[in-house]
């Protein structure tokens, strides 16, 4: 293990520790395929497949989706050499990938609105579990900065570092609300210390039953939050047609 890769190693191990029991809790008849959106070099994809098939003895297919041809070729070669028969990597953009048969959708640090694309694909598939660790949050921050809505947080948002942190919280808070409107129970938490990565927030969404009245309450919260911060739209909101 290279010294420079220690932080990544800890992140991946923690992800597997969190994801594995959530995935294993899904009834076998509803667990068929896991899709890793924006899989990159496949660190998480390989680790999760190895654990689920070798340790948990799960009969599962995992697909990594990656836009860069060279990484897709590399990962498929390694999967073949490792004899990981039901692990494969496909070349393509997240927003164009057919995820209709996905039971679980995960994404580790998909940049900005690519995280929203991954969440949307999971919702569209009716996935039992959606879990994403967001990356940058530019789309919402630009709107907050441009519109400068007057509210009780003015004294904080004049400072760039607080604006950045606020934009991250609002972006991910709205993602959680939009997932709830789509019929999911959501949690947001730090999955690892920020000493290993500043991008250490994880959004976990599990399918749940919600009444029409509960959905309306969530939709009002979304509208109120947007108005409070001067946000015209959230990318995930548009994808969901809200």
UniProtKB/TrEMBL annotation:
GO terms for molecular function: methyltransferase activity. Pfam families: Methyltransf_32 (PF13679). Residues 7-143 form the Methyltransferase domain. The keyword Cytoplasm does not apply. It comes from the Bacteria. InterPro entries: Methyltranfer_dom, SAM-dependent_MTases_sf. The keyword Transferase applies. Keywords: Methyltransferase, Transferase. One of its GO terms (biological process) is methylation. This is SAM-dependent methyltransferase.
């Amino acid at each position: 293990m290279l010294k420079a890769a220690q932080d990544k190693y800890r992140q991946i191990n923690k992800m597997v520790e969190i994801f594995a029991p959530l995935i294993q809790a899904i009834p076998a008849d509803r667990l068929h395929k896991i899709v890793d959106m924006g899989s990159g070099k496949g660190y998480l994809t390989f680790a999760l497949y190895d654990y689920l098939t070798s340790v948990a003895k799960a009969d599962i297919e995992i697909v990594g989706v990656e836009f860069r041809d060279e990484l897709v070729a590399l990962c498929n070669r390694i999967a073949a050499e490792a004899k990981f028969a039901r692990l494969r990597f496909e070349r393509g953009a997240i927003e164009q990938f057919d995820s209709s048969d996905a039971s679980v959708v995960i994404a580790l640090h998909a940049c900005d609105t690519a995280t929203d694309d991954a969440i949307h694909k999971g919702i569209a598939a009716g996935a039992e579990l959606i879990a994403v660790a967001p990356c940058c949050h530019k789309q919402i921050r630009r709107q907050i900065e441009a519109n400068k809505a007057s509210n009780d947080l003015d004294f904080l948002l004049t400072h760039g570092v607080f604006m950045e942190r606020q934009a991250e919280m609002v972006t991910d808070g709205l993602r959680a609300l939009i997932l709830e409107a789509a019929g999911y129970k959501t949690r947001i938490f730090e999955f690892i210390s920020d000493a290993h990565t500043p991008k250490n927030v994880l959004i976990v969404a599990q399918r749940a039953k919600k009444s029409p009245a509960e959905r309306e309450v969530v939709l009002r919260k979304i509208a109120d939050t947007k108005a409070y911060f001067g946000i015209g739209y959230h990318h995930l909101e548009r994808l969901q047609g809200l």
